[in-house]
Amino acid sequence: MFYRLSGVRHNSYASDSKMFNIPADRNATVFFLLLGLAAPFVIPSLYLNSYVLPWLIWTAAALGLNLVTGWAGQLHLGYAAVMAVGAYSAVHAAKFGVPWEFALLIGGLASSVIGSLFAFTALRVKGLYLALTTLAMQFVMDWVLTHSPAIAGGSHASLQAPTFALLGQKITSDAGLYYVAFGWCVLVTIFMLNLKRTGLGRALVAVREKDFAAAILGVNSFYYKVVAFAASAFIAGITGALLVATFYFLAAPEQFTVSVSIQVLAMVIIGGLGSIIGSYFGAALILLMPGVVNQIFGWLANMLGLELGIETFAHIPNAAYGALIIIFLMVEPLGLGKLYANIRDYLMIWPFDQLKK
What we know:
By secondary structure, the protein is mainly alpha-helical.
C-alpha cells in the first residue's frame, strides 16, 4: 500500500527526526504542492479567488493559532485582534509609501508586540481565565477600531488598501494574488513542520502538558510562552495584512470581530490541536462546508418539489452544518487530523492487522 514501512529503518537521531519519516507522506506533500502550483490553470478564476485563496489564508491563520493553542496549550480568544493590528499597520505603512515587503514585516512586528502582552497575562492566569483575558483584549481592540478615526476611519468606515506589489511589480491578476496566498501558506506550513522537530517545539509541548513540571526540568515556561505568543501573533499579523491586500482589498472593523476569533479557534479545534494537516481540514470545513450544505439542501428541495421559505432555507442548512460539526467531534474528539492519522495508521499495517483477529 501507499504507507508501507518495509525497509524504513532509523539508526540515528538525525534519521528519526526527519521532516517526513514515511516516504508516502513526502510524496503526498510533493503531489499537493504541484497541484497547488497548477491550480490557476485548472480551476476557474471565480472558484480560485472566492474559495481556494481565502482557504489558504485562513489555513495560515489557523496554523498560527495552533502554535500558541495546540503546541503551547494557551487558550486564545483574541486572535482576530492581533490580525487586525497587522492588517491596519501594514495598510497604513503601504499608504505612506513603504514597499509591501516591508509593510508586511511592519504588520507582523506590530502584531508580535501586541501578542506578547498576552504572554504576560498567561504568566498570571491560565485555562479559562486566560481565555477570558484574551477575550477582553479582543473587545478592547474592537472598541479601538470603531472609535479611532485615525486608525480605522470610524465605526462604519473602511480603509482602502493600496494595490499589492512585490519587488516593485503590482499584482492585480487573480493568479498572482492566489500565488501570494499560496506562497505564504506554504511558508507557514514549512515553519510548523520544522517546529515540531526542534527543541523549541518540544519545550512548547512540555509547557502545554504541565508548565510546573517543565520548570523543574529546566524549561523556562514564561520565556517559551512569550515566544509562542509573539511568533503566533507575527504569523497572524502578516496573515491579516495579506487577507486585506489579496482578498478584501480594504480593512474594516467588521472583518476582525470576536466572531472571527471564535471562527479561527473552531478551525483549530475541529482540525485537531497540534495537527498541521488538521488546520487545513478545519479551515476547509468552517469556510467551504456551509456553501456545500446550502447547495445540497437546494438540490434536495428542487428534487423533492419542496417549497421552502427564504427564512427556513436560511436556517435549515446552518442547523445541518452545526450538526455535522458535532458528529465529526463525536466520532473523533481529537479532530479531523486524527481521523486522517487513524486511516494512515491502518494502511501502514494492512493487511497484517487481520492476523490479530
